[in-house]
Design brief:
The complex is a heterodimer of chains A (287) and B (153). Chain A is an all-alpha fold and 287 residues long. Helices cover 72% and strands 0% of the residues of chain A. Chain A is globular. The model of chain A has no long low-confidence stretch (mean pLDDT 90). Chain B has five helices and seven strands. The relative contact order of chain B is 0.20. Classes of the chains: A mainly alpha (287), B alpha/beta (153).
Chain lengths: 287, 153
């Protein structure tokens, strides 16, 4: 019963939390750049505006893929919050990502195609680490199920410090933050215009934006999963760690310039190898 | 309540000009003027934009570019001509290749005077265009109009 409640809460509250997170992100970014910045609720204004604009459809398929992206992100998130299987969660998340790539591909525009190719490259960079996260949780707690992981007596981070850091690293790619905002970025007037979302307008862009909010909340929740145990106070620590994690992401976003895809792939895989695999090997011998 | 007013995204194009107004438009985005306070974002993508800021006059080469950007923008949309060159050609008006102001090729809603236009004037022009954006959204006639456009094609 509790699990279904959590799932419903994600379904209803994640857009609100995701929008607020985006608002806080923009406010803090502005302050870091010495600007006043937009109001806290600006992402909501943007979203509601997008839904009131005319929608230019380049290709009918685009609608199917954009809605598919939203549906599978929500499916993934609900699965996570009802305490489902981590492996299934990560595979569903990848499927959602593929829907976004296909959505951009279907438009047949140069910027959009470039964005989709870069998105595939990003997936190639972060996917190994994501798998290692799932395996690491299994090794540390003996189960892939989220509801078993949060019921353990020790926080997973005790066994998985390397995997935690590795996941933080690839989160920068997943959250589409600089220096890894290759496929799309918050600042449109650049070499790839808006990359993966270039050909989306009006409601379609709104749907993709909404999906990103759901996705961001899911990623922050996965960070929290490393901390949460059966003790109630671990939730407070988890929320604090998530806040610090997101602040660090904003800081990196504002202090780093975008890298080329070769560099991203190299760094992501080196981190996966050095932190992820090493952590797994050590875990094999101590546990 | 309409949210168009609270989240105007702009696209900026510089036509035939000395680049003075161009630089002033970009100055609006810097920490001193920081137009993001009003939710204004420079999108660089016509499909995401609500307001078309255009500086400089129209010549025979950029005519098609300006038309294309305008046509790619989803309704409701507003065009703001910034600086004297965008308004009627300015000092380049008598050049052999200049067609004149922006209104020679696309309908202009707001004219911002100046050479170069000051950031305060540009922000004022954008704020004025917000009310117009809302008015255009209320009419909703763009839905029929886009169908007519398709029909004519």
């Amino acid at each position: 019963m509790m699990e279904i409640l959590f799932g419903l809460m994600y379904l209803l509250l994640a857009p609100i939390a995701g929008g607020l997170l985006a608002g806080i992100d923009r406010k803090i970014s502005a302050r870091m750049q010495g600007r006043k910045g937009p109001p806290l609720l600006q992402p909501f204004y943007d979203l509601f505006k997008l839904f009131s604009k005319q929608t230019e459809i380049v290709n009918e398929l685009q609608i199917f893929f954009a809605v598919g992206f939203l549906v599978f992100i929500i499916f993934t998130g609900v699965l996570f919050f009802i305490g489902g299987d981590l492996l299934l969660i990560f595979f569903a998340l990848t499927l959602a990502g593929i829907f976004l790539v296909l959505c951009a591909c279907s438009a047949n525009s140069p910027y959009s195609s470039m964005g989709s190719q870069r998105e595939l490259m990003q997936m190639m960079a972060y996917e190994p680490m994501v798998l290692i996260v799932a395996i690491g949780f299994f090794k540390a707690t003996g189960s892939f199920a989220v509801k078993d992981i949060i019921a353990s007596h020790f926080p997973a981070i005790m066994y998985l410090p390397g995997i935690f850091l590795g996941f933080m690293f690839i989160s920068t790619i997943k959250l589409r933050k600089s220096p890894f905002d290759l496929s799309t970025s918050h600042h449109g007037h650049q070499e790839m215009v808006k990359g993966i979302t270039t050909e989306l307008s009006g409601k379609m862009l709104g749907i993709v934006e909404l999906s990103h909010w759901y996705e961001n909340i899911l990623i922050v929740a996965i960070v929290g999963l490393f901390i949460v145990t059966s003790a109630w106070w671990s939730w407070i620590i988890a929320i604090a760690v998530c806040a610090v994690f997101y602040f660090i992401e904003i800081l990196i976003d504002n202090s780093e310039a975008r890298v080329k895809w070769q560099m991203m792939l190299k760094y992501a895989w080196i981190v996966t190898l050095a932190l992820g695999i090493t952590n797994l090997l050590i875990l094999k011998y101590i546990k | 309540m309409s949210f168009l007013k609270k989240s105007p995204w702009v696209i900026h194009y510089d036509g035939s000009s000395c680049n003075g107004c161009d630089i002033e438009v970009l100055a609006c985005l810097t920490p001193i003027y920081d137009v993001e306070r009003f939710g204004i974002i420079n999108t660089g993508n016509p499909k995401h934009a609500d307001i078309f800021l255009i500086t400089g006059g129209i010549n025979s080469q950029n005519e098609s570019v300006v038309k294309q950007i305008y046509e790619q923008m989803p309704f409701p949309k507003v065009v703001v001509a910034i600086g004297i060159c965008a308004c009627d050609g300015g000092i380049f008006k008598d050049c052999y290749n200049i067609l004149g102001g922006v209104d020679k090729v696309i309908p202009v809603d707001i004219y911002v005077a100046g050479c170069a236009a000051r950031p305060q004037a540009i922000i004022d022009g954008v704020v004025k265009s917000l009310a117009l954006l809302e008015e255009k959204a209320k009419k909703k006639d763009y839905l029929n109009k886009s169908k007519e456009d398709n029909h004519n094609d």
